[in-house]
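WARN retry 2 of 3 for item q-0093 after timeout on previous attempt; input resubmitted unchanged.
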Amino acid sequence: MPPDNPLDRPLGQSIGPRPTGRRRISRGDVLLAFAGILLFVSSGAIALRERPFRNPAPVATLQPPAATASAAEAAPAKPGGDGPHIIKVAPEAPRSGNNAVVVRDPSAIGQNLRVAHLPDRALIEESETGPLPIRAADGRRPFDVYARPWSGARGARVAIVVGGLGVSQTGTQDAIRKLPPEVTLAFASGGNSLGRWMQAARQKGHEIVMQVPLEPYDYPNVDPGRNTLTVAADSQENLAALRWALSRITNYTGIMNYMGARFSADPQAMAPIMDELAKRGLLYLDDGSSARSVAPELASRAGVPFAVGDTAIDSVRDRGEILKKLDELERIARAKGFAIGTGAAFDVTVDAVASWVQGATKRGIEIVPVSAVASDPERG
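OK item q-0093 returned
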Protein backbone atom coordinates (compact mmCIF):
# COMPACT_ATOMS: atom_id res chain seq x y z
CA MET A 1 0.00 0.00 0.00
CA PRO A 2 1.38 3.40 -0.83
CA PRO A 3 2.35 5.62 2.07
CA ASP A 4 -0.33 7.80 3.61
CA ASN A 5 -0.21 11.12 1.76
CA PRO A 6 -1.93 14.00 3.57
CA LEU A 7 -2.90 15.54 0.24
CA ASP A 8 -4.97 12.46 -0.62
CA ARG A 9 -6.82 12.41 2.74
CA PRO A 10 -10.48 13.81 2.84
CA LEU A 11 -10.78 17.27 4.35
CA GLY A 12 -11.47 17.42 8.06
CA GLN A 13 -9.85 14.11 8.96
CA SER A 14 -7.01 14.04 11.43
CA ILE A 15 -3.74 12.32 10.85
CA GLY A 16 -4.06 10.18 13.93
CA PRO A 17 -6.36 7.23 14.36
CA ARG A 18 -10.11 7.87 14.62
CA PRO A 19 -11.62 7.65 18.10
CA THR A 20 -13.50 4.49 18.77
CA GLY A 21 -15.42 5.38 21.99
CA ARG A 22 -18.00 8.01 23.17
CA ARG A 23 -16.96 11.13 25.07
CA ARG A 24 -17.78 10.99 28.75
CA ILE A 25 -19.92 13.87 30.09
CA SER A 26 -18.49 15.27 33.29
CA ARG A 27 -20.40 16.65 36.30
CA GLY A 28 -19.01 20.12 35.53
CA ASP A 29 -20.58 20.02 32.10
CA VAL A 30 -23.99 19.23 33.63
CA LEU A 31 -23.75 22.08 36.13
CA LEU A 32 -22.68 24.54 33.43
CA ALA A 33 -25.62 23.61 31.21
CA PHE A 34 -28.09 23.85 34.12
CA ALA A 35 -26.79 27.33 35.01
CA GLY A 36 -27.26 28.49 31.41
CA ILE A 37 -30.84 27.22 31.32
CA LEU A 38 -31.62 28.90 34.64
CA LEU A 39 -30.18 32.22 33.43
CA PHE A 40 -32.27 32.04 30.23
CA VAL A 41 -35.51 31.30 32.10
CA SER A 42 -34.90 34.08 34.65
CA SER A 43 -34.18 36.66 31.94
CA GLY A 44 -37.35 35.76 30.09
CA ALA A 45 -39.45 36.02 33.23
CA ILE A 46 -38.13 39.48 33.97
CA ALA A 47 -38.73 40.66 30.42
CA LEU A 48 -42.32 39.38 30.43
CA ARG A 49 -43.32 40.92 33.77
CA GLU A 50 -45.86 43.78 33.59
CA ARG A 51 -43.63 45.95 35.81
CA PRO A 52 -39.84 45.55 35.92
CA PHE A 53 -37.88 45.68 39.15
CA ARG A 54 -36.74 49.22 38.47
CA ASN A 55 -39.09 52.14 39.21
CA PRO A 56 -41.33 52.91 36.24
CA ALA A 57 -40.83 56.24 34.47
CA PRO A 58 -43.69 58.71 34.97
CA VAL A 59 -46.14 58.86 32.09
CA ALA A 60 -47.64 62.22 31.07
CA THR A 61 -50.97 62.20 29.27
CA LEU A 62 -51.35 65.10 26.89
CA GLN A 63 -54.78 66.48 26.15
CA PRO A 64 -55.64 68.84 23.32
CA PRO A 65 -56.17 72.44 24.48
CA ALA A 66 -59.68 73.78 24.69
CA ALA A 67 -60.87 75.78 21.74
CA THR A 68 -60.38 79.50 22.16
CA ALA A 69 -62.69 80.79 19.49
CA SER A 70 -65.50 79.58 17.30
CA ALA A 71 -65.70 80.81 13.76
CA ALA A 72 -69.31 79.64 13.63
CA GLU A 73 -70.21 82.29 16.17
CA ALA A 74 -68.70 85.13 14.18
CA ALA A 75 -71.21 87.89 13.49
CA PRO A 76 -70.89 89.68 10.16
CA ALA A 77 -69.79 93.29 10.24
CA LYS A 78 -72.32 95.96 9.41
CA PRO A 79 -72.49 96.87 5.73
CA GLY A 80 -69.95 99.54 4.93
CA GLY A 81 -68.32 99.25 8.35
CA ASP A 82 -64.65 98.65 8.94
CA GLY A 83 -64.99 97.23 12.43
CA PRO A 84 -63.84 93.75 13.47
CA HIS A 85 -66.17 90.77 13.49
CA ILE A 86 -67.56 89.92 16.89
CA ILE A 87 -66.30 86.54 18.02
CA LYS A 88 -67.16 84.88 21.28
CA VAL A 89 -64.05 83.62 23.01
CA ALA A 90 -64.67 80.55 25.08
CA PRO A 91 -62.82 80.77 28.42
CA GLU A 92 -60.54 77.83 29.08
CA ALA A 93 -61.96 75.64 31.79
CA PRO A 94 -59.55 74.41 34.47
CA ARG A 95 -58.78 70.73 34.12
CA SER A 96 -58.81 68.42 37.06
CA GLY A 97 -58.94 64.70 37.50
CA ASN A 98 -57.62 61.90 39.65
CA ASN A 99 -57.69 64.28 42.63
CA ALA A 100 -55.10 66.50 40.91
CA VAL A 101 -54.54 70.01 42.26
CA VAL A 102 -54.95 72.65 39.57
CA VAL A 103 -52.95 75.82 40.20
CA ARG A 104 -53.93 78.88 38.16
CA ASP A 105 -52.57 82.40 38.11
CA PRO A 106 -55.31 84.60 39.61
CA SER A 107 -54.14 87.48 37.42
CA ALA A 108 -54.71 85.53 34.22
CA ILE A 109 -58.49 85.95 34.12
CA GLY A 110 -58.17 88.19 31.11
CA GLN A 111 -58.49 87.27 27.47
CA ASN A 112 -55.81 85.16 25.82
CA LEU A 113 -53.38 87.58 24.17
CA ARG A 114 -53.44 85.57 20.95
CA VAL A 115 -57.08 86.54 20.47
CA ALA A 116 -57.11 89.73 22.53
CA HIS A 117 -58.14 91.87 19.56
CA LEU A 118 -61.36 89.87 19.11
CA PRO A 119 -64.36 91.19 21.06
CA ASP A 120 -66.40 88.81 23.18
CA ARG A 121 -69.91 88.77 21.78
CA ALA A 122 -71.37 88.07 25.22
CA LEU A 123 -70.04 91.48 26.34
CA ILE A 124 -71.65 93.45 23.51
CA GLU A 125 -74.95 95.32 23.52
CA GLU A 126 -76.00 96.52 20.08
CA SER A 127 -77.18 100.12 19.92
CA GLU A 128 -77.98 102.76 17.32
CA THR A 129 -74.53 104.28 17.71
CA GLY A 130 -72.65 100.98 17.69
CA PRO A 131 -71.62 98.14 20.04
CA LEU A 132 -71.71 99.02 23.73
CA PRO A 133 -69.89 97.13 26.48
CA ILE A 134 -72.14 95.25 28.90
CA ARG A 135 -71.89 92.64 31.62
CA ALA A 136 -72.31 89.11 30.31
CA ALA A 137 -75.23 86.98 31.46
CA ASP A 138 -72.82 84.94 33.58
CA GLY A 139 -71.59 88.08 35.37
CA ARG A 140 -68.29 88.58 33.53
CA ARG A 141 -67.29 92.20 33.04
CA PRO A 142 -65.26 93.91 30.33
CA PHE A 143 -63.03 95.02 33.20
CA ASP A 144 -62.15 91.36 33.83
CA VAL A 145 -62.18 89.88 30.34
CA TYR A 146 -60.14 92.57 28.58
CA ALA A 147 -57.60 93.05 31.37
CA ARG A 148 -53.99 92.25 30.54
CA PRO A 149 -52.64 89.44 32.75
CA TRP A 150 -49.74 90.21 35.11
CA SER A 151 -47.67 88.26 37.61
CA GLY A 152 -49.81 88.84 40.70
CA ALA A 153 -46.67 89.44 42.76
CA ARG A 154 -46.63 91.86 45.70
CA GLY A 155 -43.55 93.78 44.65
CA ALA A 156 -43.43 97.41 43.58
CA ARG A 157 -45.74 98.00 40.60
CA VAL A 158 -46.01 100.94 38.23
CA ALA A 159 -48.88 101.49 35.79
CA ILE A 160 -48.30 103.96 32.98
CA VAL A 161 -51.22 105.18 30.86
CA VAL A 162 -50.41 106.95 27.60
CA GLY A 163 -53.43 108.73 26.12
CA GLY A 164 -54.50 110.59 23.02
CA LEU A 165 -54.24 107.62 20.68
CA GLY A 166 -56.24 107.95 17.49
CA VAL A 167 -55.74 111.72 17.14
CA SER A 168 -52.50 111.52 15.14
CA GLN A 169 -52.19 108.53 12.85
CA THR A 170 -48.38 108.61 12.83
CA GLY A 171 -48.19 109.22 16.57
CA THR A 172 -50.63 106.38 17.26
CA GLN A 173 -48.67 103.98 15.10
CA ASP A 174 -45.38 104.90 16.76
CA ALA A 175 -46.83 104.57 20.26
CA ILE A 176 -48.18 101.09 19.58
CA ARG A 177 -44.92 100.03 17.97
CA LYS A 178 -42.48 101.50 20.50
CA LEU A 179 -44.20 101.20 23.87
CA PRO A 180 -43.83 97.93 25.80
CA PRO A 181 -47.09 95.93 25.93
CA GLU A 182 -47.29 96.42 29.71
CA VAL A 183 -48.08 100.11 29.13
CA THR A 184 -51.81 100.91 29.06
CA LEU A 185 -53.05 102.88 26.07
CA ALA A 186 -55.96 105.37 26.19
CA PHE A 187 -57.89 106.12 22.99
CA ALA A 188 -59.49 109.52 22.38
CA SER A 189 -63.17 109.00 21.59
CA GLY A 190 -62.95 111.70 18.90
CA GLY A 191 -60.02 110.01 17.13
CA ASN A 192 -59.93 108.41 13.71
CA SER A 193 -59.65 104.77 12.58
CA LEU A 194 -60.11 103.67 16.17
CA GLY A 195 -61.20 100.14 15.30
CA ARG A 196 -58.02 99.58 13.33
CA TRP A 197 -55.76 100.97 16.05
CA MET A 198 -57.59 99.10 18.78
CA GLN A 199 -56.90 95.80 17.07
CA ALA A 200 -53.24 96.68 16.52
CA ALA A 201 -52.83 97.65 20.18
CA ARG A 202 -54.53 94.54 21.50
CA GLN A 203 -52.56 92.27 19.20
CA LYS A 204 -49.41 93.86 20.59
CA GLY A 205 -50.67 93.00 24.09
CA HIS A 206 -51.73 96.40 25.45
CA GLU A 207 -54.62 96.91 27.81
CA ILE A 208 -56.70 99.86 26.65
CA VAL A 209 -59.13 102.40 28.08
CA MET A 210 -61.41 104.94 26.42
CA GLN A 211 -60.94 108.66 27.04
CA VAL A 212 -64.23 110.52 27.51
CA PRO A 213 -64.27 114.35 27.26
CA LEU A 214 -65.61 116.04 30.40
CA GLU A 215 -66.25 119.75 30.93
CA PRO A 216 -63.31 121.80 32.28
CA TYR A 217 -63.80 125.05 34.21
CA ASP A 218 -63.00 127.27 31.25
CA TYR A 219 -65.33 125.50 28.82
CA PRO A 220 -66.04 126.28 25.96
CA ASN A 221 -62.91 128.41 25.60
CA VAL A 222 -61.05 125.18 26.21
CA ASP A 223 -62.99 122.48 24.38
CA PRO A 224 -62.21 118.81 25.10
CA GLY A 225 -63.86 117.77 21.85
CA ARG A 226 -66.96 116.27 20.32
CA ASN A 227 -69.83 115.23 22.61
CA THR A 228 -68.32 116.68 25.78
CA LEU A 229 -70.27 115.83 28.94
CA THR A 230 -71.30 119.07 30.70
CA VAL A 231 -72.88 120.07 33.99
CA ALA A 232 -75.54 122.11 32.16
CA ALA A 233 -76.86 119.08 30.26
CA ASP A 234 -79.38 116.76 31.89
CA SER A 235 -78.48 113.20 32.78
CA GLN A 236 -80.04 111.71 29.65
CA GLU A 237 -78.07 114.02 27.40
CA ASN A 238 -74.84 113.17 29.19
CA LEU A 239 -75.61 109.44 29.08
CA ALA A 240 -76.23 109.70 25.35
CA ALA A 241 -72.86 111.43 24.92
CA LEU A 242 -71.19 108.80 27.10
CA ARG A 243 -72.72 105.94 25.12
CA TRP A 244 -71.54 107.48 21.89
CA ALA A 245 -67.99 107.49 23.24
CA LEU A 246 -68.32 103.94 24.54
CA SER A 247 -69.50 102.68 21.15
CA ARG A 248 -66.43 103.91 19.28
CA ILE A 249 -64.41 100.73 19.92
CA THR A 250 -64.56 97.55 21.99
CA ASN A 251 -62.14 95.49 24.09
CA TYR A 252 -61.34 98.13 26.71
CA THR A 253 -61.45 97.76 30.48
CA GLY A 254 -62.93 101.16 31.32
CA ILE A 255 -62.90 104.89 30.73
CA MET A 256 -60.61 107.75 31.65
CA ASN A 257 -61.49 111.41 31.94
CA TYR A 258 -60.14 113.83 29.37
CA MET A 259 -59.99 117.20 31.17
CA GLY A 260 -63.20 117.56 33.19
CA ALA A 261 -62.22 119.40 36.37
CA ARG A 262 -65.62 121.09 36.56
CA PHE A 263 -67.69 118.05 35.63
CA SER A 264 -65.87 115.64 37.95
CA ALA A 265 -66.42 118.01 40.90
CA ASP A 266 -70.23 117.95 40.45
CA PRO A 267 -71.91 114.99 42.23
CA GLN A 268 -75.21 115.39 40.37
CA ALA A 269 -73.46 115.26 37.01
CA MET A 270 -71.09 112.42 37.92
CA ALA A 271 -73.50 110.07 39.74
CA PRO A 272 -75.44 108.91 36.64
CA ILE A 273 -72.16 108.30 34.84
CA MET A 274 -70.89 106.07 37.63
CA ASP A 275 -74.16 104.15 37.71
CA GLU A 276 -73.84 103.53 33.98
CA LEU A 277 -70.27 102.28 34.37
CA ALA A 278 -71.35 99.93 37.16
CA LYS A 279 -74.11 98.55 34.95
CA ARG A 280 -71.62 97.90 32.15
CA GLY A 281 -68.79 96.50 34.28
CA LEU A 282 -66.26 99.20 33.45
CA LEU A 283 -63.37 100.86 35.29
CA TYR A 284 -63.17 104.60 35.95
CA LEU A 285 -59.64 106.02 35.85
CA ASP A 286 -59.25 109.54 37.25
CA ASP A 287 -56.11 111.19 35.91
CA GLY A 288 -55.61 112.89 39.30
CA SER A 289 -55.44 116.41 37.88
CA SER A 290 -58.31 117.75 40.01
CA ALA A 291 -58.24 117.65 43.79
CA ARG A 292 -61.97 118.40 43.86
CA SER A 293 -63.02 115.28 41.98
CA VAL A 294 -65.87 113.35 43.62
CA ALA A 295 -65.11 110.27 41.52
CA PRO A 296 -63.56 108.19 44.35
CA GLU A 297 -66.63 108.41 46.59
CA LEU A 298 -69.14 107.88 43.80
CA ALA A 299 -67.22 104.96 42.33
CA SER A 300 -67.10 103.22 45.72
CA ARG A 301 -70.81 103.81 46.25
CA ALA A 302 -71.76 102.50 42.80
CA GLY A 303 -69.41 99.51 42.92
CA VAL A 304 -67.20 100.71 40.06
CA PRO A 305 -63.53 99.60 39.81
CA PHE A 306 -61.53 102.77 40.39
CA ALA A 307 -57.97 104.06 40.02
CA VAL A 308 -56.45 107.52 40.28
CA GLY A 309 -53.23 108.79 38.77
CA ASP A 310 -50.37 109.85 41.04
CA THR A 311 -48.70 112.22 38.59
CA ALA A 312 -48.78 113.48 35.01
CA ILE A 313 -45.41 112.48 33.62
CA ASP A 314 -45.25 114.97 30.73
CA SER A 315 -46.73 118.20 32.07
CA VAL A 316 -43.34 119.57 31.00
CA ARG A 317 -42.61 118.18 27.53
CA ASP A 318 -38.91 117.57 28.05
CA ARG A 319 -37.19 114.18 28.13
CA GLY A 320 -35.19 114.92 31.26
CA GLU A 321 -38.26 116.17 33.13
CA ILE A 322 -40.31 113.18 32.02
CA LEU A 323 -37.63 110.80 33.27
CA LYS A 324 -37.65 112.60 36.62
CA LYS A 325 -41.41 112.08 36.88
CA LEU A 326 -41.01 108.41 36.06
CA ASP A 327 -38.36 108.06 38.76
CA GLU A 328 -40.83 109.70 41.13
CA LEU A 329 -43.35 106.99 40.24
CA GLU A 330 -40.77 104.38 41.16
CA ARG A 331 -40.24 105.96 44.58
CA ILE A 332 -44.00 106.08 45.20
CA ALA A 333 -44.36 102.45 44.16
CA ARG A 334 -41.60 101.32 46.51
CA ALA A 335 -43.25 103.25 49.35
CA LYS A 336 -46.91 102.20 48.93
CA GLY A 337 -46.73 99.20 46.60
CA PHE A 338 -47.88 100.79 43.37
CA ALA A 339 -48.09 104.05 41.46
CA ILE A 340 -49.94 105.32 38.38
CA GLY A 341 -48.55 107.82 35.87
CA THR A 342 -50.44 109.38 32.97
CA GLY A 343 -49.17 111.06 29.83
CA ALA A 344 -49.94 111.76 26.18
CA ALA A 345 -48.64 110.13 23.02
CA PHE A 346 -46.07 112.81 22.20
CA ASP A 347 -42.89 111.55 20.57
CA VAL A 348 -40.76 112.64 23.52
CA THR A 349 -43.10 110.93 25.99
CA VAL A 350 -43.21 107.66 24.07
CA ASP A 351 -39.43 107.51 23.69
CA ALA A 352 -38.79 108.38 27.35
CA VAL A 353 -41.29 105.82 28.65
CA ALA A 354 -39.93 103.05 26.40
CA SER A 355 -36.40 103.72 27.61
CA TRP A 356 -37.30 104.05 31.29
CA VAL A 357 -39.34 100.84 31.40
CA GLN A 358 -36.32 98.78 30.36
CA GLY A 359 -34.23 100.11 33.22
CA ALA A 360 -37.04 99.94 35.79
CA THR A 361 -37.68 96.28 35.02
CA LYS A 362 -34.02 95.48 35.72
CA ARG A 363 -34.35 97.30 39.05
CA GLY A 364 -37.19 95.01 40.11
CA ILE A 365 -40.14 97.25 39.23
CA GLU A 366 -43.03 95.45 37.56
CA ILE A 367 -44.86 97.44 34.89
CA VAL A 368 -48.51 96.47 35.10
CA PRO A 369 -51.77 97.41 33.36
CA VAL A 370 -53.96 99.93 35.14
CA SER A 371 -56.53 97.22 35.96
CA ALA A 372 -53.91 95.54 38.15
CA VAL A 373 -53.78 98.47 40.57
CA ALA A 374 -57.46 99.46 40.56
CA SER A 375 -59.59 99.08 43.67
CA ASP A 376 -62.51 96.80 42.88
CA PRO A 377 -65.51 96.70 45.23
CA GLU A 378 -66.62 93.38 43.77
CA ARG A 379 -63.33 91.70 44.68
CA GLY A 380 -63.10 93.22 48.12
